[in-house]
Write a structure and sequence with these properties.
The protein is mostly beta strands and 1058 residues long. The chain is 1% helix and 36% strand.
């Protein structure tokens, strides 16, 4: 309310405010700093509308419910509210409907370390959950990963006040454009700074992306010839591609780096003056890396890393020492090395191949700077902490290191600061050409979804390995035969992706770089991030975001204002200006054919839907509906009427109609009935806004308006257009939306089929009837059915992950748009993606339930892997009117339960002179299988005296001393059981035994079981206790009946404590 300073007693007014946010549903969020709270107002609020307090107590505080002079706010797509809690020096996250917040950044104490904030003023969250924080009084912008303990600086990192392009002065607000570039309201400098997006180390690919079989040669000779001219290469190794498509090649045997510009296949520039050890010379360079501030070259046989300016001049040594072959005892030099990586903070990683380790040098290092050993122990081996001749390395946004452990024929994943690695592809020490094996892998790249791309060098192919998968799938060189054909490779060394997702392979022994173009890489779209800016000291820039920004976690920001020569960035969203009578989406242009020359232009934008509508204004007009994941407001202007605007939410609503003189209407019973508003062609404009509350609408009758609607649990809306109005198309989503009907003489409404008909099992071809009686249709023409699947992912192609031990249910909404007949043929089909999603799976009809609207598969019906599930609906009257919709499901392994002894007991009491047998191979449980297959696992056993000591492997002298003769593995040869002889345990001690089970097909699947052993002096029956939840130890909760095992010396008391 103008001029009224609100207090905590009023939710209609507010005090001093600094932050504003409007979500996709039109809710208005106000950061009421003066009253220490955040208020939310409903859509279409006015000056007298009363809001609701959704965060804060109205009093300054630092507890979970408290706020202190909060400023910037942000709401993500899940409704979670992020608050820059300024005077508490933290970012608070309030989940939708929560009574308190959780601190997601900052410690609550002021400071300038990376885990601290000083009066943060704004926060923006991208679609990956990364927070971008304007750390105002530290004069910087931080990026904070989900669940991270500290952030990383991306702008103003010197934290010094100034007007240089890399400095900020009390930055207040931040925003992103559609390409991911960062804008900062540099308040006290009276300017807005743009930090252009630069490199993108994690490829933006969807799991169902595919690549052509035949590549094109983009550098070198297509026939494999070598040479030193500008059009030839000789033993090319590492490659990098910048966002503008410029290709950098480490031309190893020519002792140079070749730069190939877009739309060219010959060198546009050469870096390096030839063979030698001078600063401008190189000796067998094996890798190249390009960042925002320069070009890095791994000058392999000179044992150094060079850094050059972007134009290839002014080389300096930033790691290693010229001509000095490093050993394991040295930390400022390295030996033979073939690949490197530069992370977003400028750390330099070198794969020290000859010393079986990976080194990390700090940013701005120089010759002689010491590195940290972050992987490997300096000697070759195949244990979790060892490497054997590692080649390729990759660092993701969480600073997890991936290593091509070449001579171990595996890919190792080392989490940040971990002491050991986990095998995520291949098998240690086992080579082969099967899809679950590797043969001297030489490089690895990880995309934004965690899919691993491996250059399987000696198999002459490139594999893609899904997260948690037991095997890979071939994406290039799948014949595995050496040759120069477009579909062949010859000892490929490294891989890279361009901004479109096309795959580039350094085909080393063919002296060429091959490009495998991508297809079926449909990316999720993102709404535009808008920003209003003013550059006076008293002005505040408020960014109003329609949704989370799409920013790749490993994106770098340029540290100065981009004014000229900014490389073109590829965006995940296409923005264009639509001509009249055009409906647009972010990735697909959608045309609306309109036969009326008097209709005004209609423009509609949808974030993810792919739609097509055709409407011809006449006496009778069929209704059209399109489905979408995200619904944006639409404005439609008919030729003789005012605009009609509608906002909707997920709430169920009721319709109250005032009946006309004659309005025959047939409507079947339904759990949820949506409102309908009918307005004659001469009516004034109508506006309806809905929220989570139930609301009513009133129908204004016309003379005769027959209407028929389908029965269902959820009924979707329809749109009806009068003959005098412009044809319109309404977008609906899987949520419940209201409908607006503008009647003409007679208009049929769309037929909608329910999503949940679980009690009815029907054949795949059936007749769908929507009412007991129907008014005859007088219009001509039909349109294809519209299908919505749940879960649905047709545009993003991101699969839904589903554990194998869980049943799977896919439901659908089918909208029929044919007035002549409702006879349909409905078919469910399941395809295995191996790798193409074309292999049809035949399901057992005795256990698979396929109804009109639902597909149900019992647990363990599908094996591990990616599946495409397709629903096809065909109109029998016109078979060419066929629609289909797909969803992708990835079946992943379920966690196993590791039981060391019978009954899954976690505690036993044993006499000192009794034998103890640990047998996880017999007693563990795998919910994905009927029985547990002990042969699929490796077993490692640990022990400690609880709780004083740390766990040690049983073969360590610290566990059982040097008395190895008194314990041994079982006789099956796979170490699935461990026998501990009498007398090995010390009396009156409690031991904790542990077994780690590591899957031999996927070493990232590691499960652990524990057992507490209380050792008594006297021999007695072994008492075994298993508990799920401890509530009490009363006699009523103890079963006294013993269960006797086969051995007379091993009697187990099963004590179920519930």
């Amino acid at each position: 309310m103008t001029g009224v300073m609100g207090s905590t007693s009023s939710n209609a007014t507010f005090s001093t405010t600094y932050g504003l946010f409007v979500d996709d549903l039109g809710y208005i969020y106000v950061s009421d700093a003066g009253n220490y709270r955040v208020i939310r107002f409903p859509p279409n609020s006015t000056s007298s509308t009363i809001g609701s307090t959704i965060a804060g107590t109205g009093l300054a505080g630092y507890g979970r419910q408290g706020l202190d002079s909060s400023r910037g706010i942000f709401v993500n797509s899940d409704g979670a509210l992020y608050i820059a809690d300024t005077n508490n020096h933290r970012i608070q996250k309030w989940n939708s409907g929560a009574c308190y917040g959780v601190t997601t950044a900052g410690t609550g104490y002021t400071g300038n370390s990376l885990d601290q904030l000083q009066n943060p003023s704004s926060v923006v969250v991208d679609s990956n959950g990364y927070m971008y924080i304007s750390d105002q009084n530290n004069h910087r912008v931080l990026r904070w990963a989900p669940e991270a303990c500290a952030g990383e600086c991306i702008a103003g990192c010197s934290m010094t006040i100034g007007t240089r392009p890399d400095q900020l002065f009390y930055p207040f607000s931040i925003a992103f454009d559609s390409q991911g570039s960062l804008y900062v309201s540099d308040t006290s400098n009276n300017r807005v700074q743009k930090f252009a997006i630069l490199n993108n180390t994690e490829a933006v690919l969807v799991p169902t992306a595919q690549w052509v079989t035949n590549a094109t040669t983009v550098a070198g000779s297509p026939t494999g010839g070598s040479g030193s001219t500008s059009s030839l290469l000789s033993s090319n190794y590492g490659i990098r591609i910048t966002n503008d498509g410029t290709l950098y090649i480490a031309d190893r045997s020519n002792h140079r780096v070749v730069v190939v510009y877009p739309n060219s296949t010959i060198a546009g520039a050469i870096i390096g003056s030839g063979y030698g050890n001078g600063l401008t010379q190189m000796n067998s360079p094996s890798d190249v890396f390009v960042t925002s501030d320069g070009i890095y070259v791994l000058d392999s046989s000179n044992y150094r890393v060079l850094k050059l300016q972007k134009n290839g001049t002014n080389p300096t040594i930033v790691a290693g020492s010229t001509g000095v072959l490093g050993t394991t005892s040295s930390y400022n030099t390295f030996g033979a090395s073939y690949q490197m990586f530069i992370d977003i903070s400028g750390n330099i990683y070198v794969s020290d191949q000859s010393n079986h380790r990976v080194l990390r040098f700090p940013p701005n290092s120089s010759s002689g700077t010491n590195a940290n050993v972050i992987a490997g122990i300096g000697s070759s081996g195949y244990g979790p902490s060892q490497l054997n001749t590692p080649y390729g390395i990759f660092v993701d946004s969480a600073r997890t290191l991936y290593i091509a452990d070449t001579n171990n024929h595996r890919i190792q994943r080392w989490k940040y600061n971990a002491c050991s690695g986990t095998t995520v592809a291949g098998r240690a020490g086992q080579t082969g050409s099967a899809l679950y094996l590797l043969q001297y892998p030489s490089s690895v790249v990880v995309d934004i979804n965690g899919y691993i791309y491996i250059c399987d060098k000696n198999n002459n192919r490139v594999l893609r390995w899904a997260p948690e998968a037991c095997a890979g799938e071939c994406t290039a060189g799948c014949s595995m035969t050496i040759g120069t054909r477009p579909d062949q490779l010859f000892y490929p060394f490294s891989v890279a992706f361009d901004s479109q997702g096309s795959l580039y392979v350094s085909d080393t022994s063919n002296n060429r770089v091959q490009k495998f173009s991508v297809f079926n890489n449909v990316l999720p779209t993102t709404d535009v991030t808008t920003m209003a800016a003013a550059v006076s000291t008293s002005s505040i820039i408020t960014s109003i975001l329609t949704s989370e920004a799409t920013v790749v976690p490993t994106t770098e920001m340029k540290t100065s204002i981009a004014t000229t020569n900014i490389p073109k960035q590829e965006s995940t969203m296409e923005i264009s200006t639509m001509a009249p009578s055009t409906v647009g989406t972010s990735t697909t242009t959608i045309h609306s054919a309109m036969a009326s020359s008097t209709a005004l232009p209609s423009t509609m934008t949808s974030s993810t839907a792919t739609m097509q509508s055709t409407a011809t204004p006449s006496t009778t007009v069929p209704s059209t509906m399109a489905s979408s994941t995200t619904v944006l407001p639409s404005a439609m202007v008919p030729s003789t009427a005012m605009p009609s605007t509608m906002a909707s939410s997920t709430a169920a609503m009721q319709s109250t109609a005032t009946p006309p003189t004659t309005v025959p209407s047939t409507m079947a019973s339904s759990t949820t009935v949506l409102p309908s508003t009918m307005v004659p062609s001469t009516a004034m404009p109508s506006t309806m806004a809905s929220s989570t509350a139930a609301m009513q609408s009133t129908a204004t009758p016309s003379t005769t308006v027959p209407s028929t609607m389908a029965s269902s649990i959820t009924v979707l809306p329809s749109t009806m257009v009068p003959s005098t109005a412009m044809p319109s198309t309404m977008v609906s989503s899987t949520t419940v939306l209201p409908s607006i009907m503008l009647p003409s003489t007679m208009v049929p409404s769309a037929m909608v089929i329910s999503t949940m008909m679980t009690s009815l099992i029907v054949p795949l071809t059936m007749e769908i009837s929507t009412a007991t009686s129907m008014t005859p249709f007088t219009i001509e023409g039909c349109s294809s059915p519209i299908i919505t699947l749940t879960p649905s992912n047709p545009l993003s192609r991101m699969p839904w992950y589903h554990q194998r031990d869980q049943s799977l249910s896919i439901s659908s909404i089918i909208q029929l748009n044919c007035p002549k007949s409702l006879l349909t043929r409905i078919q469910w089909t399941i395809y295995a993606c191996q790798p193409l999603c074309s292999f049809q799976i035949e399901m057992d009809p005795s256990v698979t339930i396929m109804t009109l609207s639902e597909l149900f598969l019992p647990s363990r019906s599908l094996h591990y892997g990616l599946y495409k599930i397709k629903l096809t609906v065909t109109m029998q009257i016109l078979p060419q009117l066929t629609s289909s919709e797909v969803t992708y499901i990835s079946i992943i392994p379920s966690p196993i339960t590791v039981n060391l002894i019978r009954f899954g007991s976690s505690m036993i009491s044993i006499g000192r002179n009794q034998t103890l047998i640990l047998d996880p191979g017999s007693f563990s449980l795998d919910p994905d299988e009927v029985i547990f297959d002990a042969n699929n696992w490796n077993y490692i056993y640990y022990c400690r005296i609880s709780p004083q000591s740390n766990f040690m492997q049983v073969n360590s002298p610290f566990c059982f001393g040097n008395r190895s003769a008194e314990w041994y593995y079982g006789s099956n040869g796979i170490q699935s059981s461990l026998i501990i002889q009498p007398g090995l345990f010390q009396t009156n001690q409690t031991y904790q035994l542990r077994a780690d089970l590591i899957n031999i097909f996927n070493a990232s699947r590691i499960f652990t079981g524990y057992l507490l052993v209380k050792v008594e002096e006297t021999d007695s029956m072994i008492i075994s206790i298993r508990y799920d939840r401890i509530l009490s130890l009363s006699e009523d909760n103890v079963f006294r009946k013993p269960t006797v095992a086969s051995s007379p010396n091993h009697v187990y008391w099963l004590m179920n404590i519930v």
